[in-house]
Amino acid sequence: MLIICWMILVLVTSVSGSSSDFEALLELKKGIHTDPSGKLLTSWDANALSSDKCPQSWYGVSCSSSGDVTSIDLNGLGLLGDFSFPAIVGLRKLQNLSISDNHFSGTLSKIASLKSLKHLDVSNNMFRGSLPSGIDDLDKLKHLDLRGNSFSGEAMSLFSQLHTVEYVDVSRNSLSGSLDLGLAKSSFVSSVRYLNVSGNSLVGELFAGGGDGIIPFFDSLEVFDASSNRFSGYLPFFSFVVSLKILRLQDNQFSASLPQGLLQESSTVLADLDLSLNQLEGPVGSITSSTLKKLNLSSNRLTGSLPLKVGHCAIIDLSHNNISGDLSRIQSWGDYVETIRLNSNSLTGTLLPSQTSQFLRLTSLEAADNSLQGVLPFILGTYPELKEIDLSHNQLSGSIPGNLLVSEKLTDLKLSNNNFSGSLPLQDASSAGNLSLTNIDLSHNSLSGVLPEELTSFRNLVTLDLSYNSFEGNIPDGLPESLKVFIVSANNLSGNLPESLLRRFPDSAFRPGNELLIGTPKDITVGSKHKYHMKSSIKAALIIGLVVGAALLALVCAWFHFVVKRQHDGEKMDVTEEKSSLQKNEPSPSPEKISVPSSSVTSTSTANAKLLVSSPRVSENPSSQVSSSIHDSPARSRQTCAKLDGNLYIFDASLTLTAEELSRAPAEAMGRSCHGTLYRAVLSSDTVLAVKWLREGTAKGKTEFAREIKKLGNIKHPNLVSLQAYYWGPKEHEKLIISRYIDAPCLAFYLQEAGLVNLPPLLLENRLKITLDIATCLSYLHNEEAIPHGNLKSTNVLLKPPELTALLTDYSLHRLITPEATSEQVVDAAALGYCPPEFASSSKPYPSLKSDVYAFGVILLELLTGKVSGDSDDPGVVEWVVLLAGQNRASECFDPSIVKTHASGSGVLIDVLQIALSCISQAPERPDMKSVCQELFRIVLKGTN
């Protein structure tokens, strides 16, 4: 009888458990608002249960044999809503919870109630708040993935709770504090195999030891990633980690010397080491490790000579350092090397010996921007796997080996800015079979001869730059259709320009230089019989043209003198003028084109600010559309075209540009800021660029600047005007940042001038879309790239028609400029009301994620009120709104134009105002941008419903 009663009790408990499980899931379902695939909302149906009440047929749900829910897997469904952990606390047998890559919000409260949990993955969502407490109760947990959310607080508040977890990823959050793993439980330190804390705001020395000086001994750790934080001080030797295979500490502030123990045979089993983008100093000693395959020490301050030994390394990146000495030391690097990157150092000597059996696995050789001399050895073209060569900006000379150009594996050949001479040796190209070259840059050398017909055999060619050489003769007809970039300017080419090239490439591809090149039907050579015997009518017309032209030139010169004099008499652009110019951000009239008679040829010269050749300081008023100098005729001889000493670096593959082309582009000053002057430059291809000239003394040093702008140039987002290129000249004032020019007014101009110019009004739906555009972009910068915008204001928000898409400009410039220049930027922003109150009490205020949130709150107030912060008429928008809100008169602050046209939208306005007020609150109470973005999305969704 007792046995029967016990069995009935177990059965009732089991059925009750199953019933409560599916009820918990139904409660969870209530918080999910959007399901793009429909898989969850359609299948999670109370009528679709098995006989034991198990929701086995529900998408992503698995049950045990007893009917208990053991797994929920909703990865990658794009679900939007509030994931309620309190709703599922009754799932006592739940072992796996995987809800990554959705749009869930909320906190991880009550997570400690799921005591059977072994696998927890909530990555890439919108969870916020402090790290979960009570997680030490989850003694069965083995896998914890919290990456890509907005969790905040001290990192050690989590690590001090963990037991025997093997996999921990908390990357791309807003965690702070130090990483004192000496305070962690010994069971965690001995069991963890994968630990990723990258993309946070962790500070201090790595593994500080909990104050007792003891560094924990990791028994099982194989992967450790602490990149993109703010760790500083010395790097530990990691002799306390016996199983470490991957170590990534790039993009921090580590200093002192490189721990040689990381490179030695006896220390670890390390296979992948990345210490780039730090401040490490000293030499790179010999590498004796037989396990190390990937080594990245780029963008540091390393000195000394190249190491004589590199062990079994396959990928070696020592670029952007101060390494000097002879490059020939790489002869002893062994047979395992596949990729060598030595760009931007101070290396000298010759490239390689004429004979060597090394580098049979070499696929990429990059040693640009050094001081290499000598010739290219013939053996370089015999390496069977070599695909990329970049030796530009050196002092190499001699001829280019013929076998190099017809290699079957080589795809990229960059030899620009050297002293190569001779002709292009392509005699064997037509019979070489499959030619793989796609990008060839031989510009700025002393190559000569004719362009060989064999160029037409390169059927995969995409880029061909032969500019600034001494090539002669015709341009071959039949160049491949795959060719996207073709530049032969500043040569001595002649004959008829092939019609196929004329249609596909701009005039800048052929000019300056090439005076005898005929490119249009009217460029017909006059017969010898009539060469010196023009008709009298033509002579008369020419004389009249010369006289009229001279008179026009005199008038233009007088006008030019008058305008310049007026500028010198006191026109200055201050912060207010910059704001006005940038607010409008409208394309100015094209610069004046002046026709100057010259002999029997009329040449056109264009007014130009000469961004690279001349300092913008020539003109006292950079907003002037009058050029600081007049360029010469584009048909000048090659000898008169100065060879620029600086370097142009391009991030965007879609941008075709040379430094010379940029220097010839007409440029109009659009405004001045504390950084320098913004120009609108028009290339000969009609491509329009925004070029920011950095004021002298503003930019950081070359190595640090290159390191930071390379990272910024790789950031892409639909609501961000990404950087496309930069120019670094030899003189202090020759620093340019280049991005695409957006022909659109900024938000400040829309709010101030919409009623005075022909612009449509900003409706409520427009303003809500703008807030979402800005919020999503900031959320991306904060959570995916872990960097603040740093200069957010309504003049840096462009509204691109017709949808008025918001585009953020001038992002993260504080990472490129000196601390003094950053302080000036902060002062300017404070004067306009975009700086948070905590900056006032800081001796060295610096842009942060929290200051971005404050500035975003100010922009929200501008959109709600229709007033611009810092405007002379409304200097205190923030104070005014806070005052009205404190008096329960918030509705009085709203822009009358949207209140009048959207009477039913007052609830939405109040909701947005609440977000704005939370953003401008004191720093500890400010939300993060991911949660702000999610709340705004919910408000917009509610408003549309």
From TrEMBL:
Residues 1-17 form the signal peptide. Residues 664-938 form the Protein kinase domain. It is a single-pass type I membrane protein. InterPro entries: Inactive_SerThr-Kinase_ABA, Kinase-like_dom_sf, Leu-rich_rpt, Leu-rich_rpt_typical-subtyp, LRR_dom_sf, LRR_N_plant-typ, Prot_kinase_dom, Ser-Thr/Tyr_kinase_cat_dom. Keywords: ATP-binding, Glycoprotein, Leucine-rich repeat, Membrane, Nucleotide-binding, Phosphoprotein, Receptor, Repeat, Signal, Transmembrane, Transmembrane helix. The chain crosses the membrane at residues 540-564. Pfam families: LRR_1, LRR_8, LRRNT_2, PK_Tyr_Ser-Thr. SMART domains: LRR_TYP, S_TKc. Residues 595-606, 619-629 have a biased composition (Low complexity). PANTHER family: LEUCINE-RICH REPEAT PROTEIN KINASE FAMILY PROTEIN (PTHR48003:SF3), OS07G0626500 PROTEIN (PTHR48003). Belongs to the RLP family. This is Protein kinase domain-containing protein. It comes from Brassica oleracea.
